[in-house]
Amino acid sequence: MGQRGSTQAEIRVLLLGLDNAGKSTLLYKLKHKSAFSTVPTVGFNVEMLDVKRQRKNIALTVWDVGGQAEMRRHWGGYHQDTAAVVFVVDSADRHRLDEARKELEKTLRSEQLRERPLLVLANKQDVAGAMTVTELKDAFNLRRICGEREWFVQACSAATGGGLDEALRRVSHMVKLPSDSAAAVKENIKGTVNYIRAKSVR
Ligand SMILES: Nc1nc2c(ncn2[C@@H]2O[C@H](COP(=O)(O)OP(=O)(O)O)[C@@H](O)[C@H]2O)c(=O)[nH]1
Ligand SMILES: [Mg+2]
Fold first, then answer.
1. Pocket flag, ligand 1, residue 17 (CB < 6 Å)
2. The whole model's pTM is what?
3. CA 94, CA 74: separation in Å to the nearest integer?
4. Options 8, 68, 80, 112, the catalytic residue
5. Total domains in the fold of the chain
6. Where are the alpha helices (DSSP H) in the chain?
7. For position 186, which CATH number holds?
8. Residue 1 lies inside a defined structural domain of this protein
9. What ligand 1 atom has the least distance to the C-alpha of 127?
10. Is 126 a member of any domain?
């Protein structure tokens, strides 16, 4: 049915960040491309977003699992099978920057999120005095806390929609596709086989 040369792959993206960062607004803006009045997330929201990467159609399932303190305890349960983490920050709220940094660090310590790419969204850029991408990078010490992990900071405004297309494009390029993973597994197997051969030949 699909066009020749196109394949469908479903990729899970975790949308994280403190409450009030703008996650729900962002998700609905991306999905409907229109402003939305949001209610604090109870439980979670999930949306499927179709994006193109080269000639492939890929469906990102974006999970917004709520940012309130009592919900954050449950984040661990959503980590499995996650292809990328999108961490949303209220760039206009300097008072909660440290709290946001601590949450991000905790998230990155998750074993199941090892090596998963991280996109930090410096949201609410429409607000006067919002922190810039550079300020956030430094405040979060991203170079240090990410190490080998692929990461990027994108400025955006869920209110105006500015930067959201770029954010989506960035995520779709950061995620490993299942075919990539299969190739990685094969590489891994080859490596192990070679290792065993080398060990048993002598
Ligand atoms: N000015 C401005 N307000 C925003 C932006 N994104 C979200 N908000 C507002 O911030 C509040 C919290 O947003 P919400 O999406 O519920 O945050 P969540 O708790 O992370 O899901 C709401 O009043 C939104 O209208 C933005 O980019 N700019
Ligand atoms: Mg929400």
1. yes
2. 0.83
3. 25
4. 68
5. 1
6. 23-32, 69-72, 97-108, 133-140, 142-146, 164-174, 178-201
7. 3.40.50.300
8. no
9. 1
10. yes
